[in-house]
Amino acid sequence: MCAGQSDGRWRGAHGMSAIDDNRFGVGATPPVFADLPVLQPGADVPEGATYLPAGPDTVLWGRLPSQRDAPVLTIAAGDTVVVDTVSHEGILPDQGQDPVAFFAGHGVDRAAVLDDAVAIAARSPRDVVADGPHVVTGPIRVEGAAPGDLLRITVGRLQPRVPYGVISNRHGKGALPAVLPRSGATVSVFAPVEERAGRLVGTLPATEGGRRDIAFPLAPFLGTMGVAPASDERPHSVPPAEYGGNIDINLLVEGSVLYLPVQVEGALAYVGDPHFAQGDGEVALTALEASLRATLTFDVVPAADAAAEFGIVTGPLVRTADYLVPTGIDLDLDEAMRKCVAAALSLLQARWGMDEHLAYAYLSAATDFDISQVVDVVSGVHARIRASDFAEVPRDRD
Fold first, then answer.
1. How confident is the model at residue 4 (pLDDT cuts 50, 70, 90)?
2. CA atoms within 13 A of residue 28's CA, in its CB half-sphere
3. pLDDT of 7 over the 50 cut
4. Do 357 and 246 share a structural domain?
């Protein structure tokens, strides 16, 4: 295998022939990696940027910040921050809690293993029984944010920090519990990122050890984006709630906006659980989990403006170039759906002045309700309301 080069780029194996190597198994195909820069802590951060690294002093592992947690960064509303995030895959105890050794077993040289992942695995406290798997960077205090307001997080750029990721189906916690994984089956699937036909793709074989002929496009996003709850207890990192957290909405790609109901003074925002790609539902338990560097802008929408724009917002709300995306979260998938419909009705009535029965009819005829995920204790549903459908509706209508 080729080593990481002095210019910070990772140049992985480029041969596709089978090799006899104990790391991959006799006759197995070695990985091929895209020629991407490895974004080690502090590397290639734009000059003058406000930068928040990920490390034992700036992350929580398995828990989300509470109102009692001191901010690791304080910013003004409207500020942009470059935030490093670290994937939990490769650092968990069932993978050896040694990312250098774990990824070496998949053909990754030490130069392409993130130093902050190594430090977090070695030094960050986590209760293996009581805590979740996710690493979150923060909290960030946003001056002027108060309960009743919305925190608006605009996703500017999402850069892969490494050219590989992992998809896992552990502990029988996917969509088919007690069925998968089967006894003896591999639960953590390594997926190299390649460049094919001018685009970055994740790659998988059809059979264990075979050629990676299956390629799917990358669409990076942060699975966890949230604010601290009005509680002294740090929430578990797995279930999302009204404050956001592990919402796993794959529409939160570059250019999207997330609105979160502020629970405490300063919001105390955090991000993590980085993904390279995820299908709605996330049925095996995880997406293509891999570390990202995120450029994010944090703004505050005052309570009165928020109500006029979106109605009563009691949970995460997403805005993309094409859609407004209200959400519903609940232990019961049917109830999550009902909550999402209610949130969508409130939005249509507040934003475009629709009569309730007409808004209900519109949602039934024109809006897709998608399952965000069904594997994180609570279930999530999100609606995709096309903004273009309302291009001719005056906003000042009663």
1. very low
2. 17
3. no
4. no
Calpha distance 27→30 (Å, rounded): 9
* CA 379 centroid distance within chain: 16
**198-227 residue pLDDT tens:** 999 999 999 999 999 999 999 999 999 999
Say if residue 142 is in the same domain as residue 260. Answer: yes
Residue 214 structure tokens: 């299956």
Looking at the structure, tell me whether residues 383 and 284 fall in a common domain. Answer: no
Mean pLDDT of all residues in 98-105: 98
Look-up: residue for tokens 């903004």?
387
Tens digits of per-residue pLDDT, 115-147? 999 999 999 999 999 999 999 999 999 999 999
Same domain, 112 and 131: yes
**What residues form DSSP beta bridges with 12?**
none
Beta-bridged to residue 165, according to DSSP, are 191
- Whether 72 maps to a domain, the answer reads yes
Per-residue pLDDT tens over the stretch 52-67: 999 999 999 999 999 9
The backbone region for 340, taken as left when phi is positive above 0, alpha when psi lies in -120 to 50, beta otherwise, is alpha
Question: Which residue spans within 46-120 are E strands per DSSP?
Answer: 50-52, 59-61, 73-76, 80-84
Cis before 274? omega within 30: no
Neighbour-count burial for 200-229, b at 16+ CB within 10 Å, e otherwise: bbbbbeeeeeeebeeeeebbbbbbbbbbbb
Distance (Å, whole) CA 56 – CA 86:
11
**Which range of residues forms the domain containing residue 134?**
37-163+219-302
CB 128 within 8 A of CB 189: no
- Classify residue 33 by burial, with Cβ atoms within 10 Å: 0-12, 13-18, 19+: buried
Please tell me whether residues 295 and 319 are part of one structural domain.
no
Cα radius of gyration rounded to whole Å, the chain? 21
Same domain, 225 and 273: yes
The structure tokens listed for 158 are 């999402």
Please, what is the average pLDDT of the chain? 93
- Give the whole-number percent of the chain exceeding pLDDT 70: 92
The verdict on residue 132 lying in a domain is yes
Contact at 8 Å (CB) between 380 and 392? no
Residues 347 and 249 in one domain: no
Q: How many domains, in total, are found in the chain?
A: 2
Percent of the chain at pLDDT > 90 equals 88
Indicate whether 369 and 227 sit together in one domain: no
Q: How far apart are CA 321 and CA 301, in angstroms?
A: 19
Both tokens assigned to 60: 């929580």
